[in-house]
Amino acid sequence: MNSRATDNHYGGIAIAFHWLLALAIVGSFSVGVYMSDLPFSPLRLKLFNWHKWAGVTILALSALRLLWRLARRPPPLPDQVRAAMPAWQRHAHHATHALLYGLFFAVPLSGWAYSTAAGFPVVWFGLLPLPDWVPVNKALADAVLKPLHQTVAFTLAALVLLHVAATLKHQFVDRDGLFRRMWPRRIDR
Predict the structure, then answer these.
(1) Least packed by Cβ within 10 Å: which of 54, 59, 99, 119?
(2) How many alpha carbons fall within 13 Å on the CB side of residue 95?
(3) Do 82 and 134 contact (CB within 8 A), yes or no?
C-alpha cells in the first residue's frame, strides 16, 4: 500500500484510518445494539466491557485521524466530479464529513460519560483505568446521558449509511471513480 497521497488519491495512512475506524464503528454499534436487550448475565457484562474498549479505541483513533487530516489536507474532489455535482451535493458532502468527524468524538465521549455517571468506571482493555470525568449520578445517567449516547450513536449510524449510499451512487451510477480514492493502491503504481 502506497503511503503518499496524490492529487486524486488519499495516502495509505489516511486510508488505513478510514477503514479501521469504519470496521470499529460498525462493530461497536452492532455490539451496542445487540447487548442493550440482553438480560443481566456474564455475557452482557463482557459485551459492555468490549463496547467500552471499542469506544475508547475509536476515540483515540479519531483523534489521531483528525490530527493526520489537519496536517495533511485530503485531495480535492476531481474536477470532473466537482463539475458534475450540483451545489447541494457538494455542500452535503462537506457537511456530512464534518458531522461524521464530530460524531466520531461525541459518541464515545457520551458513552464514557454515561458509564461513569452510572457508576461503572472505564478501564481500557482491563488494564488502563480512565478518569471518571462525570460524577456518579444515576438519574443523570439514565435520564440524560444514556438517551444522548443512543441518539448520537444512531445519528452516526444514519450518516454512515448515507456516506455508503453516496459512495455506491458514485461507483455504480456516476461511475466517476471517486471510490478508488479511498481504496488501497498497490506499491508498484
Answers:
(1) 119
(2) 7
(3) no
Give domain status of residue 23, yes or no: yes
Is residue 174 one of the residues assigned to a domain?
Answer: yes
CA distance 56 to 34: 19
Sign of the dihedral through C-alpha 43, 48, 50, 51: positive
For residue range 90-131, list pLDDT tens digits in order: 999 999 999 999 999 999 999 999 999 999 999 999 999 999
Q: How many domains does the chain have?
A: 1
Range of the domain at 173: 12-182
Helix (H, G, I), strand (E, B) or coil at 5: coil
Please write down the HEC assignment for all residues of 35-98: HHCCCCCHHHHHHHHHHHHHHHHHHHHHHHHHHHHHHCCCCCCCHHHHHHCCHHHHHHHHHHHH
Give the C-alpha separation, 188 to 54, whole Å.
34
- Within-domain flag for 5: no
- To the question of pTM greater than 0.85 for the whole model, the response is yes
